[in-house]
Amino acid sequence: MRDIRVAKPYARALYDAAVEQNALAPIIADVDKLRELIEQSEEFTQLIHSPILSPQFKSETFQQLFTDTMQPLTVNFFKLLALKQRERYLVAIMDVFSAIVDEAAGRLVAKVTTAVPITTEQGERLAQQLSTYSGKQVRLETVTDPQILGGFIVQLDDTVFDASVTTQLQRLKQQLARGS
Questions:
Q1: Distance between CA atoms of residues 134 and 143, nearest Å
Q2: Strand positions, DSSP E, 29-170
Q3: Taking a C-beta distance cutoff of 8 angstroms, is the pair 99, 119 a contact?
Q4: What global pTM score does this model have?
Q5: What does the pLDDT profile of the chain (180 residues) look like in tens digits?
Q6: How many CB atoms lie under 10 A from the CB of residue 164?
Q7: Using an 8 Å Cβ cutoff, are 31 and 39 in contact?
Q8: Cβ contact 110:123 at 8 Å
Q9: What are phi and psi of 47, to 5 degrees?
């Protein structure tokens, strides 16, 4: 909860600056690149969360890492986070930033949980069906959770579609216990 409270003003500031500079699309691409880097690099995650490294060192490291590959606004934003010692909230800030972008675009986010990763084609078909259902453009956020055994769970706004094998087995167990 604290992460979200800290993240909101920073995410809003990044969004507003990106819109003001007419650079929203490149900033979104930078945020996606950084999200991918965090998911793939344990070293970068350690850099962000290290309490030993000074804010100045982290700021300079962000400068060296991203100057050639990201927008100046994005690099300056990362440097500011480091100097304010808010870089550990980077994931939450990126999540809130994406939510602001989705809201501004009138897009809904569907959280999809599956037992195994879905293919690109499956994701596109699901997004299309959810768009038809909701009447709005839908972006998928996928999570793999082997504990649901099979099927899927989709949360779209306040609606949950639970077609997981785990839930179906629980329902079957309850029916058998009642004798119906």
A1: 21
A2: 108-114, 138-144, 152-156, 159-162
A3: no
A4: 0.73
A5: 578 889 999 999 999 999 999 999 999 999 999 999 998 999 999 999 999 999 999 999 999 999 999 999 999 999 999 999 999 999 999 999 999 999 999 899 999 999 999 999 999 999 999 999 999 999 999 999 999 999 999 999 889 999 999 999 999 999 999 986
A6: 20
A7: no
A8: no
A9: -60, -45
CA 145, 150, 156, 161 dihedral sign is negative
The token duo for 73 is: 């606004």
- Start-to-end CA distance of the chain, whole Å, equals 43
Which two three-digit tokens encode residue 173?
A: 């167990």
**At residue 130, what is the residue type?**
L
Structure tokens at 175: 């029916």
> Distance between CA 7 and CA 89 in Å, rounded?
6
